[in-house]
Amino acid sequence: MNQTPEDLESQPSSTRHPGIDHVLTSASLKSLAHPLRVRIYDELSAYGPMTASGLAERLGESSGATSYHLRQLERAGLVREDETRGRGRERWWERRPGSIAIPDARSLPPGGAERLAVKLVEDEWFRSREQNFREYTAEGEQVFGPEWLDVATSDTINLRLTPEQLHGLVTDIDVVLKSYIDQYKRTPTPGSRPVQIHINAFPLVRGEPTGEPGERASGQPSKEHR
């Protein structure tokens, strides 16, 4: 059965972003889990409606390949034809409105098709984010004026937090992001450009828990230093 927008929008939100996104169904996840389809979906998400030939030129693929994968994404309810732009036989495509999330891999059987699909989509999303940021750092100075270069940012902040504190931080960030999504996602201001925001907040694998006062992070008593 083909997915419809109603099917996707009726899916529950992820636990990380309740009320903001919708977790992909198994069928939609498997349809998205192809490197070129993820790239097509990312291009439409970041830059707006395009034709199959326009996507092919941007992605270095044939228009036949992008056209085929667009139809598969359409069947999965992830993209749709933008009928306001089409002229003659030329079809414009756009991603369907709304944020999506992939299922939590921990809830899926190890080695199963769905878990492998989650891994593929995640890897492609990470690759796309890194590529976009590297393009900005390498070429941004030649493309943008100081009005953009002076306000764009990339920061690394190190904190020591409990799970509850990290959850509070992410929730606060989500509130701010949602306000901007609601204001500008569908009604961009004249002169605006595509802007991508990356949020990563996670515990460091090689870190140790903070000990009680007078103890080292590992829980051993600390030695006095003079």
CATH class of the largest domain: Mainly Alpha
The description of the largest β-sheet is: 3 strands, antiparallel
Helix content: 40-55%
Count of DSSP H/I helices: 8
Q: What is the fourth-level CATH superfamily of the largest domain?
A: Winged helix-like DNA-binding domain superfamily/Winged helix DNA-binding domain
Biggest sheet: strand arrangement: 2-4-3
Quickly give the CATH architecture of the largest domain.
Orthogonal Bundle
**What are the low-pLDDT stretches, counting only 5+ consecutive residues below 50?**
1-6, 221-226
Give the helix/strand class.
mainly alpha
From the spread of the alpha carbons, the general shape counts as globular
Number of domains: 2
Attribute tags:
disordered N terminus; 2 domains; Arc Repressor Mutant, subunit A; 226 residues; globular; 46% helix; 5 strands; mainly alpha; two-stranded parallel sheet
Explain what you see.
The strands form two sheets. A three-stranded antiparallel sheet has the order 2-4-3. It has a two-stranded parallel sheet with strand order 1-5. 46% of the residues lie in helices and 7% in strands. The protein starts with a helix and ends in a 42-residue tail after the last helix. The chain is mostly helical and 226 residues long. The chain is built from eight helices and five strands. It folds into two domains: 5-152, Winged helix-like DNA-binding domain superfamily/Winged helix DNA-binding domain (Arc Repressor Mutant, subunit A); 155-226, no CATH class.
